[in-house]
Amino acid sequence: MMGAEARPDQKLIKAEPGTLIWTEPLPEGGRAVVKMYRRRPLLDSVRRWFTPFRVEREHDLLAHLYRNGVPCPEPLWWSHGTSHGHGRHELLATREIPGTAPLAEQLRATAATTAWDLTPLFQIARRMHEAGVSHGACYPTNLLVSVPMRNPPDLYLIDLAHGCRFSRSIVGTPPAEFDILDMLRAIERRYPLSNCERWIAGYGLDAAGIERLMRRLEHHRIEKPWRHLHRAETDTRAAWDRLTRPRASRASAAKPQIPRHTPQR
Q1: pTM higher than 0.70
Q2: Burial category of 210 from C-beta neighbours within 10 Å (exposed 0-12, middle 13-18, buried 19 and up)
């Protein structure tokens, strides 16, 4: 897929001006999902001196969740480079989870009155937050579900490009609440609020906590300006967490050797 023509064993999933996603076979069996952020502007390359690559951060978050038993694809490698067809780009490869599809597609394909039990949405969010990770874009489009859907469904987290990792559980903090409110905003237009309140209980909140979240939902916005504010606050909290954590914790959190892949230029 790096060149103008795809190989016969590659399968295109998504092609947009800034993102290209495809699958290809792995030597040991199974398939890899390869995501390319392409035609990165020069400013993004300059940012590399100050922040990790987007795919590097996403790889690290997936690796952390995978090690902690949170359902998500196994990360394989990340890379960056330049090619004639795509310009400056970043690549992330994860192991494909067979028999899955985006949750948003499956919900759209069924009637709104279908009695799906979406409690696992909030259970998986709880496990992610206990592992110290905020997703940053916790929508049904960024969750995979086993097909055909079971009731309740099996879910897997994907697309953590806007995620952040903290040194401790973030349950009860604003970054965790942003994730929960994002999920609620995405599904409350399709299902009665009474269902949403019942599903939130899967996160482990008591009645008072659920009532407080539902009040906050009335004012929660997911448009870009608001999203940028939420992400800026989360990034600031994550940076402060890294600065203030005990030195021993910082040493134990040293990044492991990350598999790298050198693409053809």
Answers
A1: yes
A2: middle
